[in-house]
Amino acid sequence: xxxxxxxxxxxxxxxxxxxxxxxxxxxxxxxxxxxxxxxxxxxxxxxxxxxxxxxxxxxxxxxxxx
Length: 66
Prior knowledge:
Layout: E1 4-8, E2 25-29, E3 32-36, E4 58-62
Antiparallel strand pairs: 1-4, 2-3
């Protein structure tokens, strides 16, 4: 696996109210789980790469180990 890709749409009536790391992705299996979170526990919803991402769907890509 080289990359996990998905689209996300968040609903939050308080635009400045995204706290903590986000999004956090957990892959759960029979023997445990893997957790991916933004670098330095950032939150990509605070400063999305596209202005439309605050109101519409935003693409997210996670590269494990990098």
